[in-house]
Design brief:
By secondary structure, the protein is of the alpha/beta class. Helix content is 45%, strand content 13%. Bound molecules: adenosine-5'-diphosphate and magnesium ion (MG).
Length: 345
C-alpha cells in the first residue's frame, strides 16, 4: 500500500464514489488528510483500522499469484466421474464468518432430509473435524486424513472418510495441512489435487461440502476447482459486499485458467442481528449488488450454534428446537429445492 492515498484510491478500496471521500475529508473524518492544490491526500495511517486490514489483504493477491504461477495455459484436467453429486465449497477469505458452522450444520440437515453427506475439512485449524466430535489425537494417529489424501498419490479419499453424525461423514484434517498447502505450491497439479482425488472417489454421498480456510490460498483454490456451487457466508459488516466481489474475481480467474464453467456462487447472510439498522442496510446492499445469488434464508445470531460447535455436535443433535437449527434446516431445504446448480450464463 502506498503511504499516502488519493481520494480515488480510497474510494476504490471502499467501493464508493470519490466525491463522498472528498466530503469525508472536508468533514475531518480522516485525521491527517491534507490538500495539495485542490486534491485531497490521505495518509494510510489515518484510515480506520478495519479498512487498513482489508487494504493489506487486498494488496497481497495470494490466489492470483498462486494460480498464475501454477496453472499452465492448457491444464490437464482429470475426466469427471460419471457420478452426479453436488459439491458445495463453503468459502470466504475472512475468518469467523460462519463457514464451518454452515458446512457442518448443512451436512447434518442434509442427512436428516435423507441425503448422504460428507464434509471435507480443508482448514488446518480442523474446526469441522472438532465440530463433529472427532478426537484430534486419534485422527492424527490414524493418518486417515485430508492431509494424507492430498500428499500421497496412493491414498484415496475413501480411506479417509469417517462416520460423523447420522448419514453425514467427514474427511478430517490435522495441523499438518498447513505444511501440505506449501507442498502443493511446488507441484504442477497443486491446484487440482483435490479434484483428481474426488473424481476417483466412488462414495455414496450425494452432497459434499468443502470447508475452506480463511484465505484465498492454494487450499481454497483446490476447493473452488471441485465446486459446482460456492456458498459464501457473509457477516453484515461494512466491507461485506467488497469481500464477496473479490472472491468472485478469484473464482472467475480460476475458471478461465482451468477452462471450466463457473460454479454458481451464493451468499448467505450469517450472524445477522436484526436489531441493528446497519445489518438491514447491508442486506439490502448485498441483494442489490448480487441479486438472486443471496439466499432467502438468513442465519441470525444464535449462541446455541457456538455452544453446539464447542460441544462437538451438529445443532440438530445439541438443540434441535433452537432458532439456529430451524434456520439451517430451512437453508438446506432452499438449496436442495434448487437441485444441483447449473452454470450461469
Ligand atoms: N449464527 C451464529 N450465531 C452465533 N455464533 C455463531 C454463528 N455462526 C457461527 N458462530 C460462531 O462464531 C465463531 C466462528 O464461526 P465459524 O463457523 O467457525 O467461522 P469460520 O469457519 O468462517 O471461521 C464460532 O465460534 C461459531 O460457533
Ligand atoms: Mg472455519
Amino acid at each position: 500500500m502506498p503511504r499516502i492515498l488519493t481520494a480515488e484510491q480510497v474510494a476504490e478500496l471502499l467501493g464508493m464514489r470519490p466525491t463522498t471521500i472528498r466530503l469525508w475529508c472536508s468533514q475531518n473524518r480522516f485525521p491527517g488528510a491534507f490538500k495539495i492544490g485542490r486534491e485531497w491526500r490521505i495518509p494510510y495511517e489515518s484510515l480506520p483500522q478495519e479498512i487498513r486490514k482489508y487494504a493489506d489483504e487486498a494488496a497481497a493477491p495470494e490466489a492470483q499469484v498462486v494460480a498464475e504461477a501454477h496453472i499452465p495455459a492448457a491444464f490437464p484436467i482429470a475426466p469427471e466421474s460419471g457420478r452426479r453429486r453436488r459439491v458445495t465449497a463453503v468459502a470466504c477469505q475472512k475468518g469467523g464468518v460462519g463457514k464451518t458452522t454452515t458446512a457442518v450444520n448443512l451436512a447434518a440437515a442434509g442427512s436428516i432430509l435423507g441425503q448422504r453427506t460428507l464434509v471435507i475439512d480443508l482448514d488446518h485449524q480442523c474446526h469441522a473435524t472438532v465440530a463433529f466430535g472427532l478426537d484430534l489425537e486419534e485422527v492424527a494417529e490414524s493418518n486417515r486424513t485430508i492431509d494424507r489424501v492430498l500428499r500421497d498419490d496412493n491414498f484415496p479419499i475413501a480411506r479417509a472418510v469417517w462416520p460423523a453424525w447420522q448419514s453425514a461423514d467427514v474427511v478430517p484434517a490435522t495441523v499438518e495441512l498447513a505444511v501440505v498447502e506449501t507442498e502443493l505450491l511446488t507441484r504442477m497439479m497443486g491446484p487440482v489435487e483435490l479434484k483428481r482425488k474426488l473424481d476417483e472417489y466412488e462414495g455414496e454421498q450425494q452432497w459434499i461440502f468443502v470447508d475452506c480456510p480463511p484465505s484465498l490460498g492454494m487450499l481454497t483454490l483446490n476447493a473452488l476447482a471441485v465446486a459446482d456451487e460456492i456458498l459464501v457466508p457473509v457477516e453484515p459488516t461494512f466491507l461485506a459486499t467488497h469481500g464477496v466481489t473479490r472472491l468472485l474475481a478469484t473464482v472467475n480467474m480460476l475458471c478461465k485458467r482451468l477452462r471450466t464453467p463457473p460454479p454458481v456462487v451464493r451468499t448467505v447472510l450469517t450472524r445477522f442481528d436484526q436489531r441493528t439498522r446497519e445489518a438491514n442496510r447491508i442486506l439490502e446492499e448485498l441483494r442489490e449488488a448480487l441479486g438472486h445469488r443471496v439466499t432467502d434464508q438468513i442465519i441470525h445470531v444464535n449462541v446455541t450454534l457456538s455452544q453446539a460447535q464447542a460441544a462437538g455436535k451438529p445443532i440438530f443433535d445439541y438443540d434441535p428446537n433452537c432458532r439456529g437449527a430451524e434456520e439451517y434446516m430451512a437453508l438446506a431445504r432452499e438449496l436442495l429445492s434448487d437441485g444441483i446448480p447449473q452454470e450461469e450464463g
